[in-house]
Amino acid sequence: MTLKKENNDINFWVVIPARLKSTRFPEKMLANIMGKSMISRVIEKAMISGASRVIVATDSEKIKSAISTYNAECIMTSGDHPSGSDRICEALEKAGADCNQVVVNLQGDEPLINPDTVKHLAILKTNCLEDVTTVVSRFESAEEIVSPDCVKVVTTECGQALYFSRAMIPFDRDASTASANTKESSYLKHIGIYSFYAGSLEEYVANGECNLEKLEKLEQLRWLWMGKKIKVLRDDFSGSTGIDTPEDLKRVESYLTKQKNN
Fold this sequence. Notes:
alpha/beta
């Protein structure tokens, strides 16, 4: 869905779950990106998105210390949370969020996220009847489509998510080979940023993991399993980079270097 009308006066919060430990990239939130930590760059983007509050939800005193020079709030949470959603839920409770507060869940490993994407996602949540809003974009290459690290989504005609998967969906049964089944225009890439009401997240967390979520290792499938509706915002300029490995970090640094030199 493309927004036709904007309400720039909406009140939304951005909450950034920031876990220190990471299996593939230890302490990636504190990784240095051209003189700034990753989490600091994400905070900067969140603060110019129009959010009325920017909150970092973390279990780490090191992260708290690293962002102390910013005006973002830092709420300490348990280190035992199984997901970022659980961490955000605790932070919202401590922050005194009303059940109807619009919240954007922005991952702490998105240093290039477009602030307009964050704002537009919150606006969409305010204007739609669906329980959750999220972002999709085009795929840049066939390699991305076949990669299980890039999540695919199929939608209805009116832009509601039908299913998310690490597999190639929709599946082209008539394709003779896997390589023939990679027309970028046939697939949508999921960008892991969400907006919802605080009360909806509380219900989501209370349900616990579902089997689909466990199989695919995709939290968003719990919403669908619960019978909730997810509206998608098409945004091919979100800037999403999702840093999971040191190699991903090098690509971001290379992009920023080119941008600086242009």
